[in-house]
Amino acid sequence: DTENEVSKNHPFQNRDLRLALNYAIDRQEMIDHIRNGIGYPADAGIIPRALPSYNNEVVKGYSFDLAKAQELLIKAGYASGKGLDPILSNVFLPMITGLFMVTFLKY
Fold first, then answer.
1. Of 25, 32, 49, 56, which is most buried, counting CB atoms within 10 Å of its CB?
2. Residue 107 burial by Cβ neighbours in a 10 Å radius (0-12, 13-18, 19+)
3. pLDDT higher than 80, residue 104
């Protein structure tokens, strides 16, 4: 909502910041540690692999690329995350996933 003062100036309005966060998440590492290696990372959008509409040829997801994430953070004006307020979510995340994300995004 670009009319709302809070969302109009929110850092997530910055596309480079959103991209940086996507490249900073090692989805396979999450599967390995949180799900004990059971499952597949969401590597092509939000459609699960078991559904017929899943197509990683059409929908290109994000691979873990910390160097690219850091480059995008600099481009977004938040080199090494400096100047970026803590990211809070109103979306339910299981506690272990949230802890993983907080720990992992520090690097």
1. 25
2. exposed
3. no
pTM of the predicted protein model: 0.74
Give the rounded distance of the alpha carbon of 43 from its chain centre: 11
Q: What CA–CA distances, in Å, run from 13 to 10, 18, 41?
A: 6, 8, 26
- Nearest-angstrom CA–CA distance, 51 and 91: 24
Token pair listed for 10: 């929110």
Largest pairwise CA distance in the chain:
43
- 31-86 pLDDT, tens digit per residue, is 898 888 998 888 888 888 889 998 988 988 888 999 999 999 999 999 988 888 77
